[in-house]
Amino acid sequence: MENLRVLVSEIAYARNHTKLSPLQRSLIPVLSFASSLYGLALSLRHYLYHLGIFRKHRLPVPVISVGNLTWGGNGKTPMVEFIARWLADSGISPLILTRGYAGGDEARMLVRHLLGGPAKIGVGANRAAVAASYFEKYGHVDPRSSTSYERLCLNKVESHLNSEKVGAVILDDGMQHWSLHHDLEIVMVNGLVLWGSCHLLPLGPLREPLTALKRADVAVIHHADMVSEQGLKDAELMIREVKESLPIFYTRMTPSNFFEVSNINSKLPLGVLCNAIILCVSAIGSANAFVNAIEKIGASFVDRLDFSDHHIFQARDVDLIRRRLEELEDKFGSKPVVVVTEKDYDRDREIFKGLHPSKVLVLCSALEFPSQKGCTEKGFKKLLEESLGVKLRGLN
């Protein structure tokens, strides 16, 4: 199954099918038929919402949707965390609604990163029901109708009480979740691969046609630091062709430190792996970006084992990793270090401990807004503030 996923992913992002293997080309007619069926189902769903047969629920607080048009690697979860921190710092308690897809690695990572703050994380496919349960437990306050004093409350007792009340909802992977009204639609774009072949699933990576960009309020091109200037221009042109007025921002993941899988409280500097032999192991949507970040650290040699996005690691995978480590040690005469992503760590916090005595480190990174064409982090926060119709009085 894992091999089939890899084959299909390669087909989806191939711009020229003639360069595919004979096996992959033989799969194209089947994938094309499935893609047509998916497109019909998507159109029917749109039509049912248009007729009002499927209804949208409006929540009593602003809803920020962070989504994408393709599968994986778009920086969606780091953006959710960034917005949650911004809201919390502004005195608004956010509720993150996530489906908890494929083992819930993203939800676990968000819980770990946001622990101790006012952000709440609700997991479940029925986002409206999950939100209702949190509103019932904690209460809610709409920052658009509250005065700044009521929202930020200088009185410590009242401030504590208000911090429990949900003031905004962030929909993780919300673009295709049409049953909730979105006050702000943020679409994340993987700058390294864009939209692949531009076909719908499963022939291509698109979950909706590119025309869905018309619904977006802002587009964010992720991994912008790894994309050439011409590549960014091409991405911008494709976006502008669909919606000329759409604001475009740029983000990147900046590595900060490592920690050991056996000791989550450890904090090791990036330089600890200078001149080391490294094996990158990942099951994420954009493995190339992860490997590229490790290569820049200054390792002597970097090897990689890539699995499909959200892959659940099994004992046989640990055996595969062990064999690769033995090969690298025989080749270079020194013990390699395994490096994994935070998402892979949070998917199963015990599995990589099975590689002992080999050292296994987790790379920690943070979302940043490189200054690109006048688009800055401050400008993005200002856009969020204006789009939500709230005045945060320069708290950011």
Automatic annotation (TrEMBL):
GO terms for biological process: lipid A biosynthetic process. Pathway: Glycolipid biosynthesis; lipid IV(A) biosynthesis; lipid IV(A) from (3R)-3-hydroxytetradecanoyl-[acyl-carrier-protein] and UDP-N-acetyl-alpha-D-glucosamine: step 6/6. Keywords: ATP-binding, Kinase, Lipid A biosynthesis, Lipid biosynthesis, Lipid metabolism, Nucleotide-binding, Transferase. Coiled coil: none annotated. InterPro entries: LpxK. One of its GO terms (molecular function) is ATP binding. Pfam families: LpxK. GO terms for cellular component: membrane. Its EC number is 2.7.1.130. HAMAP family: LpxK. This is tetraacyldisaccharide 4'-kinase. It comes from Juglans regia.
